[in-house]
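Hey team,

Filing this mostly as a record. A colleague (T.K.) asked me to run one chain through the structure pipeline before their review meeting, and I want the input and output archived in the tracker in case anyone asks later how it was produced. No errors, nothing strange. Just documentation.

Input sequence:
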Amino acid sequence: MSASFIRQLGRSGIQVSAMGLGCWAIGGPFWAGDDPVGWGEVDDDESISAIHRALDLGVNFFDTSDVYGTGHSERVLGQALAGHRGQVVIATKFGNTFDTGTRQITGSDASPEYIRQACEASLQRLNTDYIDLYQFHLNDYDPDQAGAVRDVLEELVKEGKIRYYGWSTDYPNRARVFAEGPNCTTVQHQMNVLEDAGPMIALCEQLDLASINRGPLAMGLLTGKYRAHSKLTSDDIRGDKSPAWMQYFKDGQPNPEWLKKLEAIQKILTSNGRTLAQGALAWIWARSGQTVPIPGFRTVRQVEENCAAMQFGPLSAEQMREIDKLLSR
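Output structure:
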């Protein structure tokens, strides 16, 4: 990788590709009660081929969670990265409890005993003896109790089970609690060109934390694949049972309000020969030097398109100002 494709993973000093891969979708279907929280059926062979292609194209950062496909994403990622462990940075998450037999989320647990149990299970599924970045997956966990979680993670660092840790949360006050720990190096949070995260970016820049960006393509809306009349399948989290927090899709279809915003800035995002998705990633890189977007994938083709965004680099300051003006922010 050339220097332009590399970013620092916060204060850890670890160098990662400017874009990582988000491995939620490759976990396949899983549920919370009757509600789907996966992205539909997947082909494991295609997932592995896509990960290998990403390695070929310079990606070395892979983000998953134990709950994705109730363990399946971690197993697939571990299989795909066999023989490459020393060249990659693996991030996973903990905090949700689940049943692999029924593929159901069963609750949550942030007790010290459970964190240690979850860590050991992830190490086994990922076929590794250490995790580079271990992330707390409970977005709205009580910040007054989060110090105890952070302390367990510091112990796991000392034991060599994990190298660094972070919190996957959209709340700056929660991220700040974790950042008091010397080995906290990241915050994972929602951000894309349609949904900025100014306070969190400011915190990351202040404390030298990497801003790992989930939803960089607005759950697929920023790929241009979905039109006003597109309909998602019932086993897809974006389908007709989509959760309340799902802004980009409603009742299984793209949200007209967000499609209108996208239409306003599409010309800028697709300038200079970029695809829409490549322009969306370019906006994130221009937003801050701390950002590392992690677009999801299910196919080799998606990985190739997203990785090609690194060849274009970030949008210009002028383009960034124009987008803010068009979106009235």
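Quick notes for T.K.: The mean pLDDT is 95. The chain is about 35% helix and 20% strand.
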